[in-house]
Amino acid sequence: MSRNSSVGPTSYNFTIDDSSPVWTYLPYSDGSPNGGWQTWFSTSGFNQQDGQEAVGDSRHITTSPGASIAMMFHGTAVYLYGNTTCPYDVVLDSQTISMQTPGTGEELLYSRTGLSSGKHFINLTARPGKGTHPLFFDYAIITDVVRGANASLVPLQIDNQNNTTLVYSGKWVTLHAPQIPNRASPKPYMETSTFSSSVSMAFNQAFAVAVNGPRNEGSSLYNVSLDGVETQYNASTWWLIGDTVLYYKSGLDPNKTHTLNITHEGNVGSAFSLNDITLYTTNSSTSTVPSNPANTTMSFPSGSHKDVGTTVGPVVAAFVILFGVIACALLIYRARNERKKKARKAGLIPGSILPFPPSRTPTMPSVQVSTVTTDVTSRTETSSLFVGTPSTLFFTNEKFHPSPSMPPPPTYVEFSAL
Question: What Gene3D superfamilies does the annotation carry (predicted)?
Fold first, then answer.
């Protein structure tokens, strides 16, 4: 990590890959490029099997007029990287910019600096015409500032097994898979398939927070609430992606205590998985993460399901305990009932969730090369892995140019979460 030695606000960059559900893809994120977006990985190629392991750098591809990506962010600059020879529109806040083709091999689709430090909205819409080439989207770099002389950000990672800091509610299980977060350094991760199960934490002295986790065929909707402001995301995919950014928020007040809560909101058969949470703080102070109250007991043996609760404390009288239990049960029931009512009104329980990948029958041949078994004490999951070379189905007479590393401005502190 480098730093800006000048006195004043320090700029820093955060990379958000195209594989992150922070992006909203319309009309869908993972299907045929003729009607929406299709995901491609530099080693795995196109998807040939549900749950196929994602290997290599990813791109989202579209040949559909009107297909778009969008994101809310906090920052002072934004850079969009990709590749295309077709026209496209970019909307930044309320301003629309019509972009002509940057030319084959160009990687910077759009950039804007000098934004006011605050919330912004960006949207990119593809405008391919008949016979034009696809649009490839790769990643974005968001620039923000740390107010303070010679301030430098450092990451503080909270592992999913940190039961002192993280408060799990509902049913969760510790799982192991060789692809999560990556094959070079696999680690345990937490997963829940129970509607409204959640994980939360309180923290301060941080300027930004990021949540990372895997995405898989069974991933679905989840809500992230930061200081009471709730946003819903869709992690559905045809792939097994070992690690990506599930949530990112900068521009936090380091002098405030913030509360982060993540809730699984998917329908039956879906799941939410967590790898870690990272706080970005300054090297001049240590970020304080309040631990669970002393009267909270939690245990997470590997592979077993957990019902997370709290001990009430010393028994004063039986009727006091009974009253407390009934009151808590009523509050939990009311909160879950309200969530379910909202979900049913939105058509989420039961039924499909849009914009999920459309159902499709694979027509491309696949070659099985290995079988990986995930051993868990309470269950065993077996999945077949397929690999293949990039197909030319959607690239007739088109040479695809993989994106090289594009360094941000040299005076910026840079950290990436891909």
Answer: Galactose-binding domain-like (2.60.120.260)
